[in-house]
Amino acid sequence: MGTSLEPVGGPVVLDSSAIREQLDRVLASPHFRNSKRCQALLRFATESVLDGQPDDLREKIIGAKVFGRDVAYDTSHDAVVRNVATEVRRRLAQYYLEDGHERELRIEFHSGSYLPTFTPHKEHPAPPVPPVPESKTRTGTRVGIWKAATLAAVLMAGAGAVVYHGSSSDFDRFWEPVFRAHEVVQICVGQPGRLYRFLGPRQAELDGYFAGPDAKPEASRDALKKAPIDPAEIRWTANRHLYVRDAFAMARLAALVQAKGCAFRLSPDTTTSYAELRRSPVIAIGGFNNHWVLRFGGGMRYLFEHTTVDGVAYNSIADRRDPNANKWMASRSYSGVPTEDYAIITRAIDPSTERTIVLVAGIDDYGTLAAGEFITDAGYMNSAFRDAPRGWHKRNIQLVLHTRLIDGTPGPATVVATHFW
After folding, report:
1. What are the domain boundaries of the chain?
2. What is the pLDDT of residues 223-275, one digit of tens each?
3. What is this structure's pTM?
4. All residues at 6 or more sequence positions from 85 whose CB lies less than 8 Å from its CB, including other chains
């Protein structure tokens, strides 16, 4: 008896005995052998598919047949099936991250479903990479900056050697959870929060007061006392823009995703929904300007926060385990030009989405660009994990990076702190 799959490139038939052998191998591993509930759920789900009874894979039926619940039990008050399914997904991810399982048949239990899938490892070609769609705001207005960002990503993808180099390495181990299933990767980039433009007959006059190197703010005082700015003369335009350095980091990461044979979606954080983040691995770019970065990273050891020193407010990175330690802050010269920046790189399985997330986030966008260069370069990444603890690639990871700026350009980033859990 065989089980038909429909991967890209045509159907493949897997022998049911091969799937059962792999199931036994997984259940006998240290990740499953001490959890009777996880064993029971994964075996029931697999056998239901192999026996041609996928309709049994509904929450109430699983609760009754696997966990002994009454057929009419209230799933909203008893989440046993959902909780165990989450644990099964986590344990499967850990199993396939271990060395020695790379070429085994994969049993996967995707988020939002109790229907397992079975895939021979790397026997099917990756799906073709479609053109990157132009992003839209919720109102349907086209975001012009995305055209330039997409073009940059395509150009950098054509020069893949610039982005990363090397073969099997710690660089590949870091990225393996993102690319192993050849899913579409969601790339979510932050946007400025406070950008406005002037409208109406006084547009040129107001621009002259505030915009460009020839702005005359001192001349605006008396003029604006006589004719204050009316709210109708201002329009919020932040949703049409990206920070240039965030866009460069996004282009490098998009090029890496393409070079690894995966498709990707680009979207700003303001229009990226929770439902989208549950469907695929996520790369989130930006620090304080990306609310998903702040939300995902808010409970981790190294996190972004606002700090006040001698009455002056700063953005900073703090260590949750050592709140009394000095915080990492982006220093500025007397002219206000940054001289250094810090960033956090995070790779973790997020419990709220049950997906792998990668956060590339600087205090300022200088740090985000430095982190984007660091995380897409095998040389930097291999050096970062040279002294990492054994099995680090199976854990969640955080790196804190530091970069010095010369003439407004971030130099090579160095690792100043690491955390594995």
Report:
1. 2-119, 145-193+240-420, 196-236
2. 777 788 888 888 877 777 888 899 999 999 999 998 888 999 999 998 888 88
3. 0.62
4. 41, 109, 114
Q: At what angle do helices 59-67 and 36-50 cross, to 10 degrees?
A: 120
Tokens 């660091």: give the residue.
374
Residue 129 confidence (pLDDT): 36
pLDDT digits (tens, 9 = 90+) for 7-42: 333 344 467 888 999 999 999 999 999 899 999 999
The secondary structure of residue 185, as a DSSP letter, is E
Give the full edge-to-edge strand order of the sheet including 328-329: 302-309, 312-319, 328-329
181 phi-psi bin (left φ>0, alpha ψ -120 to 50, beta other): alpha
What's the pLDDT tens digit per position in 169-195?
A: 899 999 999 999 889 999 999 988 777
Alpha-carbon torsion 413, 417, 420, 421, what sign?
negative
- CA-CA distance, 6 to 411, in Å (whole number)? 47
**Is the Cβ–Cβ distance between 152 and 132 less than 8 Å?**
no
Q: Contacts by 8-12 with C-beta closer than 8 Å and gap 24+?
A: 8/124, 8/125, 8/126, 8/127, 8/128, 9/124, 9/125, 12/120, 12/123, 12/124
Ramachandran angles phi, psi of 416, nearest 5°:
-110, -15
Which pair of structure tokens corresponds to residue 232?
Answer: 């109708």
